[in-house]
């Protein structure tokens, strides 16, 4: 398999550099493998940047998404306190099932207040935000002094960047993880790490499959944010 990023995903045949190929580990299905080699690789890179510890209080937005679910699993296995925020009660329930200490529906107006009350005076030490916009702004407001705010994309399509004065006043460190990964990630190494973590059962990827003949339906579901995890198209029988 390969995650070679050249356009042409709907081609019948594709050419890839030999160096970009990976043998799928034993016991890992095609759908899980293709999810991990893309979403899993990004999650691995994000976690390297975040440098989480067991003492962290981690707030993950878009926690029911492909990257978010992997981050929640990793942070819980590490022993950190994990708060997962996702859109809608069903997605919040899915995050709770992953083992998050607290799962909230960030479509509710006072979700940040719910998090603040649940922490009982403790502050969030790390925000891993894949949404930005108003939800990212609310997540940033939950950070304790000296915390880290790390973005991995803007699913809301509304960029949020903390003002320099806010960062200095509270001693918060801001990192655009996506920009760093696009600039310097060793993709082949991280792809292999992601596949190995999934094969070992340490990280379980989430995906939904659609027959290739229903590709348009898959695109519509993705645009409507009606999916959980990665969308994988499979050949029709």
Silhouette: globular
Spans of 5+ residues with little confidence (pLDDT < 50)? none
Q: What percent of the residues sit in helical stretches (DSSP H or I)? A: 40-55%
**Assembly type:** single chain
Number of helices: 9
Instruction: Please provide the count of β strands.
Output: 8
CATH class of the domain at 40-183: Alpha Beta
State the end-to-end CA separation: 20 Å
Task: Report the sheet with the most strands, covering strand number, pairing sense and barrel closure.
Answer: 6 strands, parallel
CATH superfamily of the domain at 40-183: NAD(P)-binding Rossmann-like Domain
- The mean pLDDT is 92
CATH architecture designation of the domain at 40-183: 3-Layer(aba) Sandwich
Q: How much β-strand is present in the residues?
A: 15-25%
Task: Tell me the CATH topology of the domain at 40-183.
Answer: Rossmann fold
With strands numbered from the N-terminus, the spatial order across the biggest sheet is 3-2-1-4-5-6
Structural class: alpha/beta
* Rg of Cα set: 18 Å
Order of helices and strands: HEHEHEHEHEHEHHEHE
Folded structure, characterized:
The chain is an alpha/beta fold and about 240 residues long. The chain has a domain at about 40-185: NAD(P)-binding Rossmann-like Domain (Rossmann fold). Helices cover about 40% and strands about 20% of the residues. It contains nine helices and eight strands. The chain has helices at about 30-50, 65-80, 90-95, 110-120, 135-140, 165-170, 175-185, 185-200, 215-225; strands at about 55-60, 80-85, 100-105, 125-130, 145-150, 175, 205-210, 230-235. The strands form two sheets. It has a six-stranded parallel beta sheet with strand order 3-2-1-4-5-6, sandwiched between helices. A two-stranded parallel sheet has the order 7-8. Helix 6 links the parallel strand 5 and strand 6. The longest helix has 21 residues, at about 30-50.
